[in-house]
Amino acid sequence: MRSLELRPEGDAGDRRNGGVYIGSGIGGFEVIEREHQVLLEHGPRRISPFFIPATIVNLASGHVSIRSGAKGPNSATATACTTSAHSIGDSYRMIQRGDADAMICGGTEGAVTPMSIGGFAAMRALSTRNDEPERASRPGTATGTASWWAKAPASW
Fold it and tell me: What is residue 137's predicted lDDT score, i.e. its pLDDT?
């Protein structure tokens, strides 16, 4: 952020053309799962009042905008595994069109929860080659599976 001159202590004029575009794969999956458990165990009155704001996809983008002082475009996307790539590409186009001079962009969320793993396993999108992890991801093969799991958001 220093190289983009997006410093919170700087003059507001320095920051008005810098924006933020950070997406999320699905949007607060861990929070959704946690609050669903609260609902089942304790009823609707015990659900956190922060449940909805914590699951909105643009939460990360808004937070980074506030922390960095970026006053330009602010957006988010939710396009599953390609969210980071879309955020970076859309940010590039915003700069290209002249909507911003600089963008903080990327993606976040590592939805590694029992429900998400169960969902991907149910649709047979996860490898079952647990005894051969080096051969677990084999996209494009007749018998291979393509998915592996990690918490690795990207930003630029």
Answer: 66
Name the β-bridge partners of 22: 106
DSSP 55-89: H-TTHHHHHHHHHHT--S-EE----GGGHHHHHHH
Length of the chain: 156
Contact (Cβ atoms closer than 8 angstroms) between residue 18 and residue 100: yes
Question: d(Cα 9, Cα 21) in Å, to the nearest integer?
Answer: 21
Q: Which residue has the higher pLDDT, 130 or 68?
A: 68
The pTM (predicted TM-score) of the whole model is: 0.74
- Residues 57-91: pLDDT tens digits? 898 999 999 998 899 999 999 988 889 999 999 99
DSSP string, 112-148: -SHHHHHHHHHTT-B---TT-GGGSB-TTSSS-B-B-
Highest mean pLDDT among 91-95, 144-148, 150-154: 91-95
Give residue 15's identity as a one-letter amino acid code: R
CB atoms within 10 A of CB 75: 19
CB 104 within 8 A of CB 18: yes
